[in-house]
């Protein structure tokens, strides 16, 4: 299973310096809490075909009980584990000589 890239947390001083720099930029002020609350994921607001083309991904609808199983069993890395299972199934299918259904 692949692990997510992680960084060390920044110090309070680094955070203050970054915040001060952002607040001093008149052309690109930080988002307000209200603006952040209104934000939605790109996959929810973009046309599906465009999102898939830009990200190289496909939207797949998975039953809730399957998602719950992966979340329970694999925790925060559940999505990567699900991708690994799907990749393995695709590779196995390619190796058994069967034609994939279109």
UniProtKB/TrEMBL annotation:
Origin superkingdom: Bacteria
Region (Disordered): 20-42
Protein name per its UniProtKB record: BrnA antitoxin of type II toxin-antitoxin system
Organism annotation: Fulvimarina uroteuthidis
């Amino acid at each position: 299973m692949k692990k997510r890239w992680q960084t060390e947390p920044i110090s309070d001083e680094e955070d203050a310096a970054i915040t001060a720099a952002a607040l001093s930029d008149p052309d690109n002020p930080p988002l307000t809490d209200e603006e952040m609350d209104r934000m939605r994921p790109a996959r929810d607001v973009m046309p599906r075909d465009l999102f898939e083309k830009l990200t190289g991904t496909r939207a797949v609808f998975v039953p809730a009980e399957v998602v719950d199983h992966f979340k329970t069993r694999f925790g925060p890395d559940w999505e990567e584990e699900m991708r690994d299972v799907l990749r393995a199934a695709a590779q196995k299918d390619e190796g058994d000589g069967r034609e994939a259904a279109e």
